[in-house]
């Protein structure tokens, strides 16, 4: 099995941030949420609540998005070309995308290309995180829970925070804009 991170690997940029900006452009009234989001996120950081709670603060704009499903569809119509073709040409039907981005956001992109998906479970109506953020060690846990008998032949990511999953793969690669290099020196 070949496994790919999404943001910064297949997608050039951060799809969640781009989706947020897309929603703001489409629905400028969401801007009033920014102060609330920042307060929520700052409070969560100050209390040491962790990344999942901080992200939930960021996602607090989601309940205010009009017609979230059509917004996601329109987002991908506009942004589906924002891919790293060097990486995308290596991804085949049936390969796995694993990401910290919300599943509801990535599902249309992955389904249209026949990619399997493991991502952060975020309620598309409330913005509530329905489990841990799918990042670092959580990616390993989620992969093993779903594919315990599958070996990872190749793993691709742009981030060293994915080292736990990279260590599980037979071969791991670090994506740098237009090049792909071994994840670990001397590999």
What's this entry about, in short?
It comes from Adlercreutzia caecimuris B7. This protein has 187 residues and is of the alpha/beta class. The chain has eight helices and six strands, in the order E-H-H-H-H-H-E-H-E-H-E-H-E-E.
Question: What does this molecule look like?
Answer:
This is HAD hydrolase, family IB. Pfam families: HAD. InterPro entries: HAD-like_sf, HAD_sf. The structure is a single chain. A six-stranded mixed β-sheet has the order 3-2-1-4-5-6, with helices on both faces. Helix content is 41%, strand content 18%. The mean pLDDT is 91. With 187 residues, the protein is α/β, with parallel strands linked by helices. The chain has a single domain (2-182), classed as 3-Layer(aba) Sandwich (Rossmann fold), CATH 3.40.50. It has eight helices and six strands. The longest helix has 14 residues, at 33-46. Strand 2, helix 6 (103-113) and strand 3 (116-120) form a beta-alpha-beta unit. The radius of gyration is 17 Å and the shape is globular.
**Which regions contain 5 or more consecutive residues with pLDDT less than 50?**
none
Number of E-state strands: 6
What global shape is seen? globular
CATH architecture: 3-Layer(aba) Sandwich
**Domain unit count:** 1
Detail the topology: elements first, then pairings.
Elements: E1 2-4, H1 15-26, H2 33-46, H3 51-58, H4 68-79, H5 85-88, E2 96-102, H6 103-113, E3 116-120, H7 137-147, E4 152-157, H8 163-166, E5 169-176, E6 179-182
Parallel strand pairs: 1-2, 1-4, 2-3, 4-5
Antiparallel strand pairs: 5-6
Helix pairs in contact: 2-3
InterPro entries: HAD-like_sf (IPR036412), HAD_sf (IPR023214)
Protein name: HAD hydrolase, family IB
Organism: Adlercreutzia caecimuris B7
